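Continuing from the previous page of notes. For each protein in this section, the sequence appears first, followed by its structure tokens. Read the first protein now.
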Amino acid sequence: MTISDRIFERLKQINMTQKVFSEETGISQSTISEWKSKRTNPTSEKIMIICNVLGVTPEWLLSGIENTGDRGNKSSWYVIDKKTDMGYMISTYHDMNEGQRERLLGYMEAMMALTREKKKH
């Protein structure tokens, strides 16, 4: 099954029309129709917005496999929406100089050490 197949499968599951999907994602209806008729896939920069609108993970959209529970390998990377608190933190970290990053990581380690100590008692 292709990425576009999974998109159309999910659209059926959530009863969303291609028109609404187009409006929600900002992807033209002609492009979406092209995915269906020519069995092509969306470009990589559209994956996150598609996932957000469809309520699926990038892993599912790209592979059809959902990593759930304790089975499978844990991913060594994250996909984060820049509009979230975590996205803001990462963007801000990226803009810091090396000294600021080291200081922030030191604060984080100290906070986690305090949390671990509290759990012991």
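Done with the first. The second protein uses the same format. Note its length before scrolling.
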Amino acid sequence: MTMVSQSDSMVGSSRPLVVQITTVPQTLYRLFPAVVAHLKQKGFAIKAISSTGSWKKSDEVAEYLNIEIGSVNLSRSFSPVQDFIALVQTTRILRRWRPEIVHCHTPKGGLVGGIASWLARVPCRVYTVRGLPHMTATGVLKFLLLTSERVSCALAHRIILVSPSVRDELISLGIGDQAKMVVPGSGSAQGVDADGRFNPEHVRSNYATSSRSELGIAESDFVVGFVGRLTRDKGVKELWETWQRVREFSPASHLIIAGASNEPRRGDVDEILQALNLDSRVHIVGNVEAIEKYYAAMDLLLFPSYREGFSNAVLEASAMSIPTVAFDTVGCRDGVRDGITGFLVPVHDSNAMADCVIRLCHDDNMRRQFGRDAREWVLREFQPSDRHVMLEHEYSELLSKRICS
């Protein structure tokens, strides 16, 4: 059964309707508020389609964004029956709404949304590639993910890639028409609010108590942070291995972990999570809203992810003047300027990662300089307003061509 959350019913016929399609509503909640506000201001009507959600429900997100959201049976995992039902539901909604533009996000949203918008004869179709999960998949799953990416890119009139390294990876695989591809500036689909939410001065003034004091961490202690889903692909194994060496080197060190652990396809990480939970110097805070408060407690971000699109965590930490040590892989190398805003090390090399963390722990001047350079780079290259204008321009250009195929 298809449910539609009622909210933004004032849609004039003269305003081109853009429908954003994501797999889960929390993507809309986290990444789209400023985009929706900008596009509305510029004369676009906005609606969305996603699953009903778990952490954030679609009706809650609809009210928060003041838009209408059509809820369908989308899931992150491949399920032929469920995916077919979602495709039928999405196609019906699009035929009823008759949008001028459909903009799909995430692999499943791109596949189901792309096919549905083609079936519904939507004039302009956009697909944002936010990551490449096939890179860590094997066997049939890898084949399905690659096939999904090929179909999504083939059906799109414009392909937005969140980083240069994602673009290069797709080109190397022969996926997508290069003439359709665009990367927003230096990368990232939405940039980061370095002037407001992730401004370290604002964060310090906005909270009466620091997260260090709440967690029982002294101001003089060295704090390493990790922000991300607690899954195999995010490098939980290497996080644990790196931390083991760091805690031995620095008895006054702590590790703050922020992120959800109840993720699908998280891999065999249960024993590691149990070990982290038993460590008195590890502070697992879960999936938090005010993540900026925890960035303010960190001296360094540890980011051992095997693959990314473009890491929001790295950008947020950089905006907070925090250097990053990350793996040199797709989507991570775009967010760290090696030797300037942090360090990049070979994928899976937890010893090299620990060496870099220990070096920055020992060298306060280098760590602070890296943090200053990281914030300056983010302020210069990753302003959200630039991404909003770029997206508005892409929509307007597609509308002027009125493609339909």
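What the second structure shows: The chain has two domains: 3-191+384-401, 200-381. The domain at 200-381 is CATH 3.40.50.2000 (Rossmann fold). We return to this in next week's lecture.
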